[in-house]
Design brief:
The protein is of the alpha/beta class. The chain contains ten helices and nine strands. It binds pantoate. Pantoate binds next to strand 2 and helix 6.
Length: 285
């Protein structure tokens, strides 16, 4: 247990026992998977979960398999006691915080890969990332067996990977996407914003500003190729770099759109480094 009043379980059997008891009482269960170091964005997922189910479970697991060896798994910010307090205040009923050994016991040998939507953008920049995400999300859904699971649209490509996974594996869970929560200056909330220095924090909203400018230009009939070039230029000039991508893609399957004016519902995606942080964001056109 943590210092907060939020009940916490660390094993699959304890999680299942509680979920079964709620089910027997006729209650629906929502799951909000997280990697902790929570912010208002995560809490909005919990609140949305409460509107969809009588009970909300939050998982907290910094999943090693979705980090490449060169990435920030060790440095990833962690504060379980604070997270538990925040979750309790948002109306969460149960924290599931398994150990790495509980999630990946000796002999664990399965990887879930989702072709297609995993391939572009973060699939290029972080080639092993989505297999790690898909595997742990498949496990979390199997462990908790929620009626509904909530994921943020800030990681829009991840949300599409999870929707594909659930459809392809016939998992009996409804996947709900939640709108990105932002600072007043437009910066998308992210646990990794804690890596930003004061100077970088002042620069960071330029990513969302460039995406909004690009969306406006596309709505006005500008060509995709021009808008992508201008967006890259804007964030580079603001101080971002290296830039992984600034791309316009189809909102339904992430396919590349032609270089001219958009002719299908689209979304613009960007990922770029700012100091030690890698920031990602996306907006609808
Ligand atoms: O979005 C995240 O925080 C993680 O990728 C998730 C979905 C909890 C899986 O580890």
């Amino acid at each position: 247990m943590t210092g907060s009043s939020l009940p916490t379980v660390r094993t699959v059997s304890a999680l299942r026992g509680q979920v079964r008891a709620w089910r027997r009482a006729g209650e629906r269960v929502a799951l909000t998977p997280t990697m902790g170091f929570l912010h208002e964005g995560h809490l909005s997922l919990v609140r949305l979960g409460r509107t969809r189910a009588e009970r909300v479970v939050a998982s907290l697991f910094v999943n090693p398999t979705q980090f490449a060896p060169s990435e920030d798994f060790e440095a990833y910010p962690r504060d379980e006691a604070r997270d538990a307090d925040l979750l309790a205040s948002a109306g969460c009923d149960l924290l599931y915080a398994p150990t790495v050994g509980e999630m990946y016991p000796a002999g664990f040998s399965t990887t879930v890969t989702v072709a297609g939507v995993s391939a572009p953008m973060d699939g290029v920049a972080r080639p092993t990332h989505f297999a790690g995400v898909a595997t742990v999300v498949a496990k979390l859904l199997g462990q908790c067996q929620p009626d509904v699971a909530i994921f943020g649209e800030k990681d829009f490509q991840q949300l599409m990977v999870i929707r594909r996974l659930v459809a392809d594996l016939d998992l009996a869970v409804e996947i709900v996407g939640a709108p990105t929560v932002r600072e007043p200056d437009g910066l998308a909330l992210s646990s990794r914003n804690s890596y930003l220095t004061q100077g970088e924090r002042a620069v960071a909203p330029a990513l969302n500003a460039a995406l909004r400018t690009a969306a406006e230009a596309l709505r006005g009939g500008a060509a995709v190729a021009d808008v992508e070039g201008a967006g890259m230029g804007a964030i580079r000039a603001a101080g971002f770099g290296p830039i992984d991508y600034f791309e316009v893609r189809a909102a339904d399957d992430l396919r590349r759109l032609g270089p001219g004016a958009v002719d299908a519902p689209a979304r613009i995606f960007a990922a770029a480094r700012l100091g030690k942080a890698r920031l990602i964001d996306n907006v609808a056109v």
